Amino acid sequence: MSKPVIQLRVYKKFEGRNGIFKNELGKIENEVLTPALEYDTLEWHNYLKNLSPEIHAKIEVESYSVKNELGYQKQECPENILNDIQNLFKKPQRDLTPQEKEIAELRAMIAELKGSSKPDKTVEKVESSDDDELDQARAKYKEAFGKKPHHSWDAQQIEEKIKELSE
After folding, report:
1. From the CB of residue 18, how many other CB atoms can be counted at a distance below 10 Å?
2. For residue 161, which phi and psi values (nearest 5 degrees)?
3. Sign (positive/negative) of CA torsion 72, 75, 80, 82?
4. Do residues 112 and 105 make contact, with C-beta atoms less than 8 angstroms apart?
5. What is the C-alpha to C-alpha distance for residues 128 and 40, in angstroms, rounded to an integer?
6. Global model pTM greater than 0.85
7. Average confidence (pLDDT) per 10 residues, the chain, 167 residues
8. Contact at 8 Å (CB) between 127 and 105?
9. End-to-end Cα, the chain, rounded Å
10. Closest Cα partner for 3 from 62, 84, 94, 64?
């Protein structure tokens, strides 16, 4: 039995920014690659290994085909393959180091003493970074004011400037 062929749609970043960008006519500005690869081959594994979140914005399965006596026939892609593709660019979560656990516990104690009801989300797992949130805030700022925000501003500062300048 031959291996299925998967047609991928890989979007490269547009001008170094995350996301899929369309011009005023609705045409996608990102460069799009559409490789067709046999699943679970050396070529498949090498291709996926060399995809990078620094270069590529998004990857999705365009089609899934299985060879039969009549040729290749398109079918619905299995859930496990879709999940593997969707999880390629997700940042892995890691367990906290003993020092990070102690800091999280101390922060929780401080919050409790201050009377804050806001729970500390860092007690269980730590997210590697918040690049998506920052990119979304930058895009929102550019849409609102027609220019990029200062490069040193974080997502919170950008949101504050949008509120401040919108009033």
Report:
1. 20
2. -65, -40
3. positive
4. no
5. 29
6. no
7. 86 77 81 90 90 83 89 89 83 77 89 69 50 85 87 88 82
8. no
9. 65
10. 64
Residue 48 CB burial class (10 angstroms; 0-12, 13-18, ≥19): middle
> Are 10 and 34 contacting, i.e. CB atoms less than 8 angstroms apart?
yes
Residue 20 token pair: 């899929």
For every residue of the chain, which 3-state class applies, written as one string? Answer: CCCCEEEEEEEECECCECCCCECCCCCECCCEECCEEECCCHHHHHHHHCCCCCCEEEEEEEEEEEEECCEEEEECCCHHHHHHHHCCCCCCCECCCHHHHHHHHHHHHHHHHHCCCCCCCCCCCECCCCHHHHHHHHHHHHHHHCCCCCCCCCHHHHHHHHHHHHC
The crossing angle, in degrees rounded to 10, of helices 155-166 and 131-145 is 20
**CA atoms of 137 and 132, how far apart (whole Å):** 9
In total, the chain counts a number of residues equal to 167
> Which residue is it, tokens 């999940």?
83
